[in-house]
Amino acid sequence: MKNIFSSRFGIIFAGGIIGIIAVTLQKFGNPPNMGICAACFGRDIAGALGLHRVEALQYIRPEIAGLVIGAFIIAIIKKEHQPRGGSSTVIRFFLGMFAMIGALVFLGCSWRALLRFAGGDWNGITGLFGLTAGVGIGVIFLKNGYTLGKSYRLKKSSGWIFPAFMAALLVMVALEFKVSETGPLFSSLSGPGSLHAPLLISIAAGLLIGILAQRSRFCTIGSIRDIIIVKDFHLASGVVAFLITAVVFNLIYGQFKPGFYDQPIAHTNHIFNFLGMALAGLAFTLSGGCPVRQLILSGEGDSDAAIFVTGMIFGAALSHNFLLASSAAGPGTFGLAAVITGFFFCLIVGFIMREKID
Amino acid sequence: MTERIDATGLSCPQPVILVRNIMKKGVTDFEVIVDSEVAKENVIRSVAKNNLNADISSNGDTFTIKVCKR
User: Fold this and answer.
1) Segments of chain A assigned E as strands
2) What is the distance in angstroms between the Cα of A113 and the nearest Cα belonging to chain B?
3) Which of A25, A65, A91, A250 qualifies as a cystine partner to A170, CB 3.0-4.6 A?
């Protein structure tokens, strides 16, 4: 049977609904301009597990688990659950790590760059320019034979592990699990980590977006990449729909506050905003998709995507432990050094991982 | 002889890039083998954009997309 979500109408419909869900999550309590953000939420999960100890950034974000599990369920139903892996696994881990480091210099992934823009935070535009530049560099490598190589079919069970890990996180947050009085799971009492929609709403939203994104192949990085490579506006039409509904519903909810200054969980250092997102865009492009797409692929049984996500969570912990991440006050002490290192890594990978094209 | 692209196991956007490269050489008759729905959808879209015809046959775990002039 034909997948209706793979049509032009399908991707626009999915993008539009996802945009509405994202800003509605903010209405229900998620942090401002952060309805769904794989970078911020990955960082909060790292904090909740105690991988970093910034008290304001600790919460097992149920949306992330919902995304993976939603994609997992629909992939099983549609017979698209395809356990696979073995395509430059370690490189993908470090691409995930540097993607996160770059995203946390900007303060958001590609999804939040769009959501910040949709909420009137014009620094989001700087981020989107940076993102596009990063994707553009990635495309140059792709056009010159860059590849991380083939993946291989794996045993069914290997495709269950990452969704099971996410389910375990959900159970732990639902039961308010604690190792000891002072131990994990940590949960912020103030700051962004303390702001969240009610548990069931977060889970439902994650599941729904997971299903829609799996069926439609919604990808924020792919949208820019496909325009540059093959002038294909298919994915971009979904992203534009996402942006439009997000703006409209932000206006309806009174969440639209235009300007560069005093924006929530944002800084105005344009150079860092641009460079951070350029690094993230490059790392996402070299690994094949935006962070939410990687979560969806993890749900579909793609071990390489699951490793990328794990690398992101590791990167979040490093970012905060090593003072790489920005905050509302501005860039972190070693943010620039980390971004430069990340660029070096990505460029080396881009040059080395090439196959001859005829 | 019909040119053949083996795009099995390749993730986004590699299958599309391989197809793009072969179309750029002016080849209009070729076969692409993919092993995921996503790759299949992307290749079909890319071929259709270039006004070529795509015939899809499923063989167990893989799909063969036969491309020819309309």
Assistant:
1) 84-85, 152-153
2) 22
3) A65
Alpha-carbon span B25 to B6, nearest angstrom: 17
Distance between start and end Cα atoms, chain A: 36
Question: Which residues in A lie closer than 8 A to residue B16 (C-beta atoms)?
Answer: 226, 229-230
Tens of each residue's pLDDT in chain A, 358 residues: 678 999 999 999 999 999 999 999 999 999 999 999 999 999 999 999 999 999 999 999 999 999 999 999 999 999 999 999 999 999 999 999 999 999 999 999 999 999 999 999 999 999 999 999 999 999 999 999 999 999 999 999 999 999 999 999 999 999 999 999 999 999 999 999 999 999 999 999 999 999 999 999 999 999 999 999 999 999 999 999 999 999 999 999 999 999 999 999 999 999 999 999 999 999 999 999 999 999 999 999 999 999 999 999 999 999 999 999 999 999 999 999 999 999 999 999 999 999 876 5
CA distance A119 to A246: 8
Nearest CB to A151; choose among B9, B21, B49: B9
Please give the single-letter amino acid code of residue A4.
I
- Residues, chain B, total? 70
> 3-state class of A154 per DSSP?
coil
Single out the residue of A136, A143, A129, A115 nearest to residue A33, CA to CA: A115
- The nearest alpha carbon in chain A to B44 belongs to A6
Q: Is the ipTM of this complex over 0.85?
A: yes
